[in-house]
Design goal:
The chain is α/β, with parallel strands linked by helices and 246 residues long. 30% of the residues lie in helices and 22% in strands. It has 8 helices and 12 strands. The strands form 2 sheets. A 6-stranded mixed beta sheet has the order 3-2-1-11-12-9. A 6-stranded mixed beta sheet has the order 4-5-6-10-7-8, covered by helices on one side. It is globular, with a radius of gyration of 17 Å. It binds zinc ion. Zinc ion binds next to loops.
Length: 246
């Protein structure tokens, strides 16, 4: 099976449409590691796309926030403003869908989907020492995760845990051959709000038969997404940060 794996869409319709176009005909099934909404100006479009197209979705902290399942005092003021705005925009059907999303990790075939860590759905895995502990909680050889908005992830060998770098700016994709004997935490990157210094929308294709993950980047209409965020009256930083992917 070939899976299109997306994460952290964050209600960015322009980025999502670019990913859908680029990935077309390259997958059999779509999976999502959470955060369909929050920050961006098109929450209903993102949820409706997931309802129509995704086979499995785990909930992210921003999905919980919009659905009223999260204590917003844990959120910074910008994220809280965006979550409250999002909750007001969502249709009752889309709110009900977010409320019913399962907590990760969620088994799929012989791998798993998580939002944060396999140990804790809200934990950030940004560095190798954080991933080191997370590997102990994995039930399978490969877990896809999101939450950090950093494309790449971590590989655990017998000797150590090492980071997997994102594709360099000059390339639109990089293939990773999953080696026997290694265990992987794979972050497809963020569709709607990359934070790894590359403003292009990120996703991954996983060919489970061949054991190959392809990390992908695609440019999208950043200016269009920024205009909608500003027109909605959301905090300006949510628009400006899309420019450099930070
Ligand atoms: Zn997120």
């Amino acid at each position: 099976m070939r899976y299109l794996i997306v994460s952290d869409l964050h209600a960015n319709r322009e980025a999502l449409e670019a990913v859908a176009r680029e990935a077309e005909d390259r997958y059999d099934s779509i999976l999502c590691c959470g955060d369909l909404v929050g920050y961006g100006a098109d929450p209903n479009a993102a949820v409706e796309w997931a309802r129509a197209r995704c086979d499995r979705v785990v909930r992210g902290n921003h999905d919980k926030a919009a659905a009223g399942l999260e204590d917003l005092s844990w959120f910074n003021p910008v994220a809280r403003t965006a979550a409250e705005w999002t909750a007001r925009q969502l249709t009752p059907e889309n709110l009900a869908y977010l409320r019913a999303l399962p907590r990760g990790p969620l088994p799929v075939e012989d791998f798993e989907l998580a939002h944060g860590s396999p140990a804790d759905e809200d934990e950030y895995l940004s560095w190798a020492d954080q991933a080191f502990t997370a590997f102990d909680y994995m039930e399978s050889r490969v877990t896809f995760f999101g939450h950090t908005h950093l494309q790449g992830g971590f590989r655990k060998t017998l000797a150590n845990v090492e980071p997997i770098p994102r594709p360099p700016a000059a390339l639109d994709r990089v293939m990773l051959d999953l080696r026997p004997g290694s265990v992987y935490l794979i972050n497809p990157g963020s569709v709607g709000q990359p934070r790894d210094g590359d403003p292009r929308a990120a996703f991954a294709i996983y060919d489970s038969g061949a054991g190959i993950v392809t990390y992908w980047r695609v440019p999208y209409d950043v200016a269009g997404a920024q205009r909608k965020i500003r027109d909605a009256g959301l905090p300006d930083v949510l628009a400006s940060r899309l420019q450099n992917g930070r």
